[in-house]
Amino acid sequence: MKPINKTVESFKESIFATISRLAHSKNAVNLGQGFPDFDGPEWIRELAKRSFDGQNQYAPSMGIKELRESISQYYNDFYNLNYDLNEQITVTNGATEAIFCTALALINPGDEVIVLEPFYDAYIAAIELAGGIPVPVTLYAPEFKFKIEELQNAFSSKTKMVFFNSPHNPTGKVFSSEELNSLCELIIKHDTYILSDEVYEFLTFDEAKHLPIASLKNMQERTITISSAGKTYGLTGWKIGWICSSSEISHAIRMVHQFNTFSVCTPLQYAVAKALKELKNYIPSFKKQYSDLRELLVPGLEKLGYRPISPTGTYFSLIPTPEGVNDIDYCKNLIEEKSVASIPLSPFYLKSKEGEGFVRLCFAKKKETLEKALKNLS
Ligand SMILES: Cc1ncc(COP(=O)(O)O)c(C=O)c1O
Fold it and tell me: Fewer CB within 10 Å, N or C, the chain?
């Protein structure tokens, strides 16, 4: 038999699948899986139910007009960013498809793509399937900052783009405006693009403020902004995402999207179009819900002596592994001895060993789930 694609051959089962299987076999509380164990708000699910009448055929490939209108409106209302709904916004099957379409539309074989590690694992797959070469730049604990010299040295004449994510999975970090500005300076200097994955844009706590890369000076033209309704509404199974970019890039992305999924679930697009109109009213309760869950898990872990990092964004908290124990072993120990599943960080690095020092816990869980996990961890 002829071999399968050689890039695919190098892919392994995701760490999420491995850990979930182990957690299931030991009946452990699963704080590894990075999504809520509760439903999104009832009012949005009601909107969805009503959307199923007469709206069940293919949507336009770029997404229904009502949803592109709502997306364009919220970027304007929240960030003062203008995107033309006819040319610059495309609805995708979640942020994941958006990431793949962007990679396939922009990367040529041999292009280098800078990725900050730890990264969201789909980035490396998307870059490699497009024939690109990931160039890792490490974020160093405990603040998960990049070293500017390392970032400068990562750029070369072959750099096509940077894959960036803030608020950041898995660290929970929200990048400061100084960090963003120094990154953008290099992007402009080297005339490259940036994919800015902002799926956790509304999940910031305390004083942390999300700054979209496209809103920084001279950046909108070279930024491909990606977001998704999955995180903002706690409805990850809906898989409604979007990409905003310049018309030229958007055209290339649409060329990929039309032959990939072609279009996205029609009735759910109508529901998200309506839900985005309520964003301003909805966000305070959304933040409070997750902030309360963070306040349950993080101080709870502290009391038990686990030294968690309290995140300023996302729904993840990292805990350091004990001296001399690596993340994979620690994760397995926690499942076997404490019946709590977490995610080890080392699979999200290409270069550094920093990941061996942490596991990630997700607090997008019911109060009872978190209380049970804390009880088990005591
Ligand atoms: C940083 C990041 N980007 C993208 C995604 C994928 O989003 P979606 O479910 O909309 O495809 C996730 C999901 O966990 C994520 O954490």
Answer: N
CA of 97 to the centre of ligand 1 (A): 10
Pocket test for ligand 1, best of 175, 199, 232 (most atoms within 8 A of CB): 199
- What is the Å distance from ligand 1's center to 303 Cα? 31
**Is 68 in the same domain as 19?**
no
The helix (H) or strand (E) run that includes residue 300 is: helix 279-303
Confidence of residue 248 (pLDDT cuts 50, 70, 90): very high
Percent of the chain with pLDDT over 90: 98
For residues 129 and 99, the answer to whether their CB atoms sit within 8 Å is no
> How many domains are contained in the chain?
2
The verdict on the CB of residue 102 being under 6 Å from ligand 1 is no
The whole model's pTM is what?
0.98
Confirm whether 1 is domain-assigned.
Answer: no
Task: Specify whether 206 is located in the same domain as 314.
Answer: no
Ligand 1 centre to CA of 254 (Å) is 20
Instruction: Please state, in angstroms and rounded to a whole number, the distance separating the CA atoms of residues 103 and 129.
Output: 8
User: Which of 169, 226, 238, 264 for a ligand 1 pocket mutation test, highest count of atoms within 8 Å of Cβ?
Assistant: 169
**pLDDT class for 218, splitting at 50, 70, 90?**
very high
Residue 115: CB within 6 Å of ligand 1?
no
Residue 367, domain extent: 6-40+282-377
Residue 270's pLDDT band (cuts 50, 70, 90): very high
Question: Is 163 near ligand 1, meaning CB less than 6 Å away?
Answer: no
Taking CB atoms within 8 Å and a gap of at least 24, the contacts of 343-347 are 343/15, 343/16, 343/19, 343/32, 343/34, 343/170, 344/15, 344/19, 345/118, 345/170, 345/318, 347/15, 347/121
For residues 198 and 211, give the distance between their C-alpha atoms in angstroms, rounded to a whole number.
9
Omega before residue 118 within 30° of 0, cis = yes
- Contact by Cβ (8 Å): 228, 240: yes
Give the Cα separation of 362 and 122 in Å (integer).
18
Q: Are residues 256 and 298 in the same domain?
A: no
